[in-house]
Amino acid sequence: MTAINSKPTAVVVCPGRGGYNKPELGSIFRHHEKQKPLIDKWDARRDALGTATVSQLDQADKFDFNWHRQADNAAALIYAAGYLDFNAIRDDYNIVAVTGNSMGWYTALACAGVWDAEHAMDIVTDMAVNTAEAEGAQLIYPLVDENWVWHAPYQQAITDVLKQHQGKLFESIRYGGYILLSGTQAAIAAAAKDLPVIEQRFPMILPGHAAFHSSLMQAASDRALKKWSVKQFQQPKTPLIDGRGFCWQLPGIDLDAIRQYTFQHQVTETYDFTRALQVAIHEFAPDHLILLGPGNSLGGAAGQVASMLNWQGITNKSSFNNIQKSDTRGTPMPPIVSLGIN
């Protein structure tokens, strides 16, 4: 907890794909015009690669779904918005650890100082194209009811389809009260047909997503390991929690090991975002979870993990909404701060 007259402690959480949409258009320059020198450097790097710049994308007259959600463009916007958010708040909190969901791991590496912030844009862009070229698809399905209470029949339905399509369907991301599955196009289509319909929304096949965090990404992993050497990695300035819940602690880490994790396990195995947040809360006992933008894609999942742990009085969706909206703890900010909306 926070000592008197000290900065509040925080774990920074970086979002993955899907955070930058029509409502976020223009948000990078609205919120971070003072950081234009860094944006200009990113723009120069992407222009040299022949890709749309962050400025062109963020300052477009309208949101073009196909253009803005193109893998390399979406990744650039998500990384840029997240890192700029981090820069803007890093002096306001005692940041005790950094984590992320899925491609948010790349943003986390830059926030923690493992990757140079400017050069990280090259790796983020490359990995987005690299993984998007892979086969397969992805869907999301709830494991909790409308008040975030665990619902065993939903988990059983997931277990059943995984068993039915073994070797072609995989757990992709454990995401609070949700599970994301990856697999071949045929396996995802079959699972979407077989899973019971919930709230007339789920199962939801995610548009433009390949079979992320599964063995179908092995070729992408091989290409990344061949292209990006350990020279891109530096010792972190802040502890990192990865998609296994493993904590990369200071003062020194094995740079070869974190490179191998980043481009092998992180690409081809289940990303356990739930476990990452559980470790963050248990091991670092932060005053706040700071969810970087763009958007608020992490809000529900973070709240669900908090409710699993009864963290700061959050036990279900109702208590989460009440605590987030009121100052019941005597602090000016709620326990979970979403920079994409605050």
Automatic annotation (TrEMBL):
Might you give the EC number(s) for this enzyme?
Answer: 2.3.1.39
GO biological process: one example: fatty acid biosynthetic process
Q: Indicate the transmembrane segments per the record.
A: none
Positions in coiled-coil regions = none
- What species is this protein from? Idiomarina seosinensis
Q: What is this protein called?
A: [acyl-carrier-protein] S-malonyltransferase
Task: State the source organism's domain of life.
Answer: Bacteria
Q: Tell me the keywords, alphabetical order.
A: Acyltransferase, Transferase
Q: Could you tell me which PANTHER family the record lists for this protein?
A: MALONYL-COA-ACYL CARRIER PROTEIN TRANSACYLASE, MITOCHONDRIAL
Quote the InterPro entries the UniProt record gives.
Ac_transferase_dom_sf, Acyl_Trfase/lysoPLipase, Mal-CoA-ACP_Trans/PKS_FabD
A molecular function annotated in GO for this UniProt entry is:
[acyl-carrier-protein] S-malonyltransferase activity
Show the catalytic activity: holo-[ACP] + malonyl-CoA = malonyl-[ACP] + CoA
Q: What is the lineage of its organism?
A: Bacteria, Pseudomonadati, Pseudomonadota, Gammaproteobacteria, Alteromonadales
